[in-house]
UniProtKB/TrEMBL annotation:
<feature type="domain" description="Hydroxymethylglutaryl-coenzyme A synthase C-terminal">
    <location>
        <begin position="168"/>
        <end position="442"/>
    </location>
</feature>
<keyword id="KW-0444">Lipid biosynthesis</keyword>
<feature type="active site" description="Proton donor/acceptor">
    <location>
        <position position="82"/>
    </location>
</feature>
<keyword id="KW-0753">Steroid metabolism</keyword>
<keyword id="KW-0443">Lipid metabolism</keyword>
<feature type="active site" description="Proton donor/acceptor">
    <location>
        <position position="240"/>
    </location>
</feature>
<comment type="similarity">
    <text>Belongs to the thiolase-like superfamily. HMG-CoA synthase family.</text>
</comment>
<feature type="active site" description="Acyl-thioester intermediate">
    <location>
        <position position="116"/>
    </location>
</feature>
<feature type="binding site">
    <location>
        <position position="245"/>
    </location>
    <ligand>
        <name>CoA</name>
    </ligand>
</feature>
<feature type="domain" description="Hydroxymethylglutaryl-coenzyme A synthase N-terminal">
    <location>
        <begin position="1"/>
        <end position="167"/>
    </location>
</feature>
<keyword id="KW-1207">Sterol metabolism</keyword>
<dbReference type="GO" id="GO:0004421">
    <property type="term" value="F:hydroxymethylglutaryl-CoA synthase activity"/>
</dbReference>
<keyword id="KW-0808">Transferase</keyword>
<dbReference type="InterPro" id="IPR013528">
    <property type="entry name" value="HMG_CoA_synth_N"/>
</dbReference>
<dbReference type="GO" id="GO:0010142">
    <property type="term" value="P:farnesyl diphosphate biosynthetic process, mevalonate pathway"/>
</dbReference>
<dbReference type="InterPro" id="IPR010122">
    <property type="entry name" value="HMG_CoA_synthase_euk"/>
</dbReference>
<protein>
    <recommendedName>
        <fullName>Hydroxymethylglutaryl-CoA synthase</fullName>
        <ecNumber>2.3.3.10</ecNumber>
    </recommendedName>
</protein>
């Protein structure tokens, strides 16, 4: 099969959200800390009737319906999630309920988990399957789903159909990975949904992984194309986005990499701005606040062009963990839909602990229903953002308490307060005395 990649996509995020500006006032932090300091506008969160399973069921059934896909045509279903609901039973098995009516039980794949990287692992599994000798001609389906967790929270689910002749095709030879052992963000307390985080270390790990992946990506490109890769060879760069400020820093860091690799890759003004930092050691360069500022300044106009179009949903929804990178990519489709044919997009996936890969897509128009313009219509990002209900920080905190109380719990029915949910959404109705979870469709 040729041009294996993403044929179709859909995104779902909860209808309830809270403004970051309101949270700043409520939390008593200085004005601008979340909106400018972290670069976030708004945060989506689940109420007690929604979780990763209900959101995944919603997005999978919506994708099958909107692209008119026969459920029997799915041969592999992979889930990437950072939110573990059960230490043994996969989220994938819950999703088999969506396929019950079709009678299709012949669907390979389970869950992939490692912080925010599980989604990328799941996507690679599907792509590799379609490219392998065990492929039976059916589609792969990848699902990302995340529930909420502060401080930089967010919640969403994304479904993507994988197959040949895709409008969003992998450049399979261009992949650079960096994997190592780190304690930057982890969840050792199985009774809690909250992580242990070393915020500063997690930023440094992210940037180190980015440098390493970019170096490998460039090496592979050079081997293949016989010339050096520079940022001008890609139209867009899309990053895993725990919060927007880190994306700004990351792009600045890539710019610095290009400057070090070949000063002629950047303009004269940037060369002057960055020259004082050229001799810093790796460690020094991660610690230097001045360098960070210089990078962001030098890269600013290129950021507007190559990164800004992908920042909408992550800024509006918050950290969607495994879904974050793909929500950023969806923002790019949404913002640039009529000018993407022939364009290259470089993607950077990062999951703490740590695992990371840089890879790239080449975009083409595709054939209905699997064409870029139809994908953008189905995604319908503007309406989905507009339809949300803004709640107060007090309501958000009250809701968080209920969620904490229910976390890992049994023998409860949810409030049945589904007022915020649109018809067709799945929701959690109860968890019985044996911890079995029950869902219904509104
Ligand atoms: N106006 C404007 N900017 C402000 C204001 C203000 N009033 N107050 C603070 N800032 C700026 C700071 O200068 C800082 O900017 P900088 O990053 O350019 O230095 C930024 O806001 C953040 O301020 P901090 O004091 O560093 O905030 P905090 O101590 O809360 O730490 C962090 C932020 C580390 C992101 C924390 O929220 C965290 O641990 N998040 C989870 C971990 C994470 O997401 N890591 C990313 C990779 S791992 C992953 O994806 C899970």
């Amino acid at each position: 099969p040729n041009n294996v990649g993403i044929l179709a996509m859909d995104i779902y995020f909860p209808p309830t959200c809270v403004q970051q500006e309101a949270l700043e006032a409520h939390d008593g932090v200085s004005k601008g800390k979340y909106t400018i300091g972290l670069g976030q506008d708004c945060m989506a969160f689940c109420t007690e009737v929604e979780d990763v399973i209900s959101m995944s069921m919603t997005v999978v059934s919506s994708l099958l319906e909107k692209y008119n896909i026969d459920p029997k045509k799915i041969g592999r279903l992979e889930v990437g999630s950072e939110t573990v609901i059960d230490k043994s039973k996969s989220i994938k098995t819950f999703l088999m309920q969506v396929f019950e009516d079709s009678g299709n039980t012949d669907i390979e794949g389970v869950d992939s988990t490692n912080a925010c990287y599980g989604g990328t692992a799941a996507l690679f599994n599907c792509v590799n399957w379609v490219e392998s000798s065990s492929w039976d001609g059916r589609y792969g389906l990848v699902v990302y789903a995340e529930g909420p967790a502060r401080p930089t929270g967010g919640a969403a689910a994304i479904a993507m159909l994988v197959g040949p002749d895709a409008p969003i095709a992998f450049e399979s030879k261009l992949r650079g990975s960096h994997m190592s052992h780190a304690y930057d963000f982890y969840k050792p307390n199985l009774a809690s949904e909250y992580p242990v985080v070393d915020g500063k270390l997690s930023q440094t790990c992210y940037l180190m992984a980015l440098d390493s992946c970019y170096r490998l990506f460039c090496e592979k490109y050079e081997k293949l194309e016989g010339r050096q890769f520079s940022m001008s060879d890609s139209d867009y760069f899309v990053f895993h986005s725990p919060y927007n400020k880190l994306v700004q820093k990351s792009f600045g860091r890539l710019y610095f990499n290009d400057f070090l690799r070949n000063p002629s890759f950047v303009d004269e003004t940037s060369r002057q701005t960055l020259a004082p930092y050229a001799s810093l050691s790796g460690d020094e360069s991660y610690q230097s606040r001045d360098l960070e500022k210089a990078n962001q300044q030098a890269a600013k106009h290129t950021y507007e062009e190559k990164v800004q179009p992908s920042t909408l949903i992550p800024k509006q929804v918050g950290n969607m963990y495994t879904a974050s990178l793909y929500a950023a990519f969806i923002s790019l489709l949404h913002n640039k839909h009529d000018s993407l044919v022939g364009k290259r997009v470089v993607m950077f996936s990062y999951g703490s602990g740590l695992t990371s890969t840089m890879f790239s897509f080449r975009l083409q128009q595709g054939q209905h229903p699997f064409n870029l313009s139809n994908i953008v219509t189905v995604l319908n990002v503007s309406d989905k953002l507009k339809q949300r209900v803004e709640l107060t920080p007090e309501k958000f905190v009250e809701n968080t308490k209920i969620m904490e109380h229910h976390y890992g719990g049994k023998d409860f029915v949810t409030g049945q307060d589904c007022n915020y949910l649109l018809p067709g959404r799945f929701y959690l109705t109860k968890v019985d005395s044996l911890y079995r979870r029950f869902y219904a469709k509104k």
